[in-house]
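Customer ticket, subject: "Can you confirm the structure for Thioredoxin?"

Message body: Hello, I'm evaluating your service for our small team and ran a test protein. I'd like someone to confirm that this is what the system normally returns, since I don't have a reference to compare against.
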Amino acid sequence: MKNRILFSILSIALLGIFTLTSIDVSAEAKDEPKGKSPVVTLSASNYESETSKGLVFVDFWAAWCGPCRRMAPILDEIATEYKDSVKIGKVNVDNYKKFSIDKGIQALPTIVVYKDGKEVDRIMGLVSKEKLVEVIKEYSAKKAN
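Agent reply: Thanks for trying us out. I re-ran your input and got the following:
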């Protein structure tokens, strides 16, 4: 009987936690970027074609990830200000769990940097706009192999 009561209390507590984490998700944490942002929503089916040309930052994120939500407006700014230099794509890891695991994503947020279809760098965790601009300048200056 004690186990049954304990299980019921634990179930209610977990339900409350899941409910709280799904409430009040900000606009930048939704699957589709809001407005006319140049950020591209990526999926398993369009990933290769979207990362095949030029410099591409792919942000692996989740709605429940606080640092991911803080990174979103920074990436929106980069996508707008540096649209001629870099493409920004986003993969919601909750929607593409196996795909994200296959890509070796172990922490959120993770930005995978591609140059002409080849992975050239990974940036894990919350980083500043200045750091991302440095990466853009570094890989824009390098010739593709």
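A couple of notes from the result: Helices lie at 2-22, 47-50, 66-81, 97-102, 129-141. The radius of gyration is 18 Å. Feel free to reply with more questions.
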